[in-house]
Every structure is written in C-alpha cells, then in structure tokens.
Design goal:
It contains ten helices and ten strands. By secondary structure, it is of the alpha/beta class. The strands form two sheets. It has an eight-stranded mixed beta sheet, sandwiched between helices. A two-stranded antiparallel ribbon has the order 7-8.
C-alpha cells in the first residue's frame, strides 16, 4: 500500500522565479483565524523528487502544528517550468527557495518576519545555501542534509578529495558537445531503476531510495528519476556549506539518522556552522527512513516543530 503523503490536501498554487512559473502546494493550519498572520516554512525536495512526495508529508504535518508550509517543484523539474528538463543546477535550486520566500511574503496570512525553511537530502543542502544569502529566512532545518557538490567531486562513498571531479567534468563536456551538435538530451538516473541494477558497490541510500521512488511506496508520475548529465559541471563547483558560518545568529537545525551512510554530510555542515546550531541524531534510522517511516519521521517532526516554535 502506498504511504500517504497528504499532497491531495495541499492547495495548488503558482509563483514566478526569473520568468518561470513555479508549481507549488501550500498547506494551511486548520481553523485559520481571519486577520491573523501565521509563521511559514518553505519545504525543499530531494534531488529527483517532487512536491507530492516527502515535502508534502512534512508540509502537511507542519501545517497541523500551526505553520503555513509551501512545498514546490524545483525549476526544470516536476510541474514547474524550465528548459532543458531535469537540469539539476544547484544555484538555480537555491534561487527557487528564495522565490518561494518571495511568494510567501505576498500572502496576507503570512507573518513576513517569521519565515523559515527546511529541506530533505539535497533540498536540505540547498536550504542551507539559501539561508546564507537570504536574511529573510529566520531559521533553517535540514533533514539528512546532502552536499551535492562534494558528492560529485569526491564520490560516494568517499573516494578522495576531488577524486571524481575530472570524470564528472569530462562527462558534462561530452554531453554538452553532443547536445550542441544536434543529439538529444543526455540523461543519467539519480537512483537505480530497480534491484536488478544494484551491484556490490551500490550504497545503501541508493538501494533504499530506489525502493522509495521506483515502487508503489512513493512513486509519482512527475518524478522521473532523471538528471541531465550536463548538470555535473554546475554541481562540481558547488559547496552547499560555503559561508554557512555567516548564517549566525540565525539558528540552524540538522537531523540525521544514526545509521545513515550519508551522515558525514550532516556532520560536516554542523561542524562548519556557527552557533546557535543543533544536531539531532535519530537512533536506528537510515537516510531514507526519514522520508516516510512514521517511527522516525514523527521524531524528526517533533524536533523541527519545537525548533521553529523557538526560532520563529
């Protein structure tokens, strides 16, 4: 049975980002009071994901706790506009979050002085970048925070500093040349399409994410598991945590599973951030457990809600 994500209960909205129409779902607190302004949170999805998956689960639950929550599709992905399709441009994804904040400031029921942001996996890394350069984000939380830049440069599992950089740039250059000379877009997959694609070297997160995205557990028609190969040259020079210490004195929260094979990304972010900051390790959880497993998501949501209650 498919795990419910509550996306059906979100209100479909649209907002603009540098000329592109962005598709979102907004979740509202029950029994909203006329004339009252509520705190709001932007929720960013993982790489390859869409708003109807894990962002809707977190967004709906935050709304039950009194927050306006906005989940949205990244530009070039899902139902949002942007060509070429399935481009994973980290700088564009950071701007997506800032455009979502723009939109929240236009809503009469949102308190502009109480806007936060959170993300999951790559979306958490992009959220940290957005908090660095957008002072309107008063607090930020990351669940299984992933630095897509170090993933591409260093490999995963870790193969050495910049060990994979040359290979990534060569692949991106080849793809761009082929496309410029009339060939179709060159794509790769975020995660294996099925267990048949697993090898002895497939990381646990990729196995678990394949089960999440490519089965009835949480597959969705607009989540295509595609990334344009030319994305690699954008990702290769990106660092989600560059200047993260400058977010202070605005607070940061990092949540990670104790068994996550991606835990080092979160620990790196936490180490580089300045106070006030908090690291919450959820015992027994792997990376993708924090996408939809009620046992672990419930713990994460309690920490996130308490964090935003204090910070917003």
């Amino acid at each position: 049975m498919r795990t419910p994500t509550h996306y059906e209960e979100g209100k479909r909205v649209a907002f603009m980002k540098t000329g592109l129409r962005m598709a979102g779902l907004i979740f509202l607190p029950p029994n909203m009071e006329p004339g009252r302004r509520y705190p709001a949170v932007v929720v960013a999805h993982p790489g390859g994901g869409v708003k109807e998956q894990v962002p809707s689960l977190y967004g709906w639950n935050l709304a039950q706790k009194g927050y306006v929550a906005l989940a949205f599709d990244a530009s070039h992905q899902g139902e949002s506009e942007g060509e070429p399709r399935y481009l994973e441009d980290p700088y564009s994804r950071v701007e997506d979050i800032r455009a979502a904040v723009d939109y929240l400031t236009t809503l009469e029921y949102v308190d502009r002085s109480r806007i936060g942001a959170m993300g999951v996996c790559a979306g958490a890394g992009y959220t940290m970048s957005a908090a660095i350069n957008d002072a309107r984000i008063k607090a930020a939380a990351g669940v299984c925070t992933w630095n897509t830049g170090t993933w591409i440069r260093d490999g995963f599992p870790y193969k050495g500093r910049c060990a994979m950089l040359g290979q990534a740039l060569a692949a991106a250059a080849d793809a761009r040349t082929r496309e410029a000379n009339g060939e179709g877009p060159v794509y790769t997959h975020f995660v294996p399409e099925s267990p048949a694609d697993f090898t002895d070297e497939t990381p646990q997160i990729m196995k678990d994410a394949s089960d999440y995205y490519k089965t009835d557990r949480c597959s969705f028609p607009t989540s295509k598991n595609l990334m344009l190969v030319q994305s690699l040259d954008r990702l290769a020079t990106y660092d989600a945590f560059a200047f993260i210490e400058t977010v202070s004195p605005r607070p940061l929260l990092f949540i990670v599973g104790s068994l996550a094979d991606t835990r080092h990304f979160t620990e790196d972010a936490y180490e580089r951030a300045a106070q006030p900051k908090e690291l919450c390790v959820i015992e027994g959880a792997r990376h993708v457990d924090l996408y939809d497993d009620p046992k672990y998501v419930g713990q994460a949501l309690e920490k996130i809600a308490a964090f935003f209650d204090r910070s917003l």
